[in-house]
Design a protein that fits this description.
Structural class: little secondary structure
Number of strands: 0
Oligomer: single chain
Largest sheet: none
Distance between the termini: 131 Å
Shape: rod-shaped
Helix content: under 10%
Radius of gyration: 39 Å
Length: 207
């Protein structure tokens, strides 16, 4: 059956209906069952607005931008991203951030309101380049060499060594003499290629 024209009032359709043209409804459309929408849903005169919650049980293929023209986009649940995520602006996270894989940090890590705090062990397998001052308020366990690839390692304070010092190179003072302000016990042999000047008493306890 075919009909050309318009209906005034309530229309009940109890069977399959094919509309070959435009269905222009000025009032409310109530779907009490499943809507099998095989084409596009759009508004030719503006934005398509849903004034209610949308429950999507399948996949959403968002080919355009997702934004909120009146504020921020809010996700009130967990967000699982199985692909890559690119952030062109600032990522502000007020809760915990758990990285279960490699973090490819290509820029600086900084805290604009204070210091960056790491509340756990920090394992650095590469180089740690510090251009500012490094403050260590606890023990430093250096399991490898400490050196300066562009010059000398300078310690601008007293150095207290409670263990043994294995000095494999020369000990010298480039600006003057090496001064020992305490007793100096030598249990091995001592070789002096220059002059040994002793201002105080000298005690030789052996031959």
């Amino acid at each position: 059956n075919q009909f050309a024209g318009y209906f005034v009032g309530k229309v009940n359709i109890s069977d399959a209906t094919t509309i070959g043209g435009t269905l222009d409804v000025t009032g409310a459309v109530i779907h009490r069952s499943t809507l099998d929408q095989r084409g596009y849903v759009f508004n030719s005169t503006g934005d398509l607005t849903f004034n209610d919650n949308i429950i999507i049980t399948g996949t959403t293929d968002a080919r355009g931008n997702i934004f909120n023209s009146t504020g921020n986009v809010v996700v009130n649940d967990n967000l699982d991203v199985t692909g890559n995520g690119t952030y062109a602006g600032t990522l502000d996270v007020t809760g915990a951030v758990i990285h279960r894989s490699t973090l490819d940090q290509r820029g600086a890590i900084n805290n604009t309101t204070g210091n960056v705090v790491v509340n756990d062990n920090l394992d650095v397998t590469g180089n740690l380049d510090v251009t500012g001052t490094a403050l260590f308020r606890n023990t430093i366990e250096a399991r490898n060499n400490i050196f300066n690839s562009v010059g000398d390692v300078t310690i601008g304070d007293n150095l207290v060594i409670t263990g043994t010092t294995d000095a494999r190179g020369n000990i010298f003072n480039s600006t003057g003499n090496v001064v020992v302000n305490d007793n100096f016990d030598v249990t091995g042999n001592g070789y002096f290629t220059g002059t040994l000047t002793v201002d105080g008493a000298t005690f030789l306890n052996s031959s």
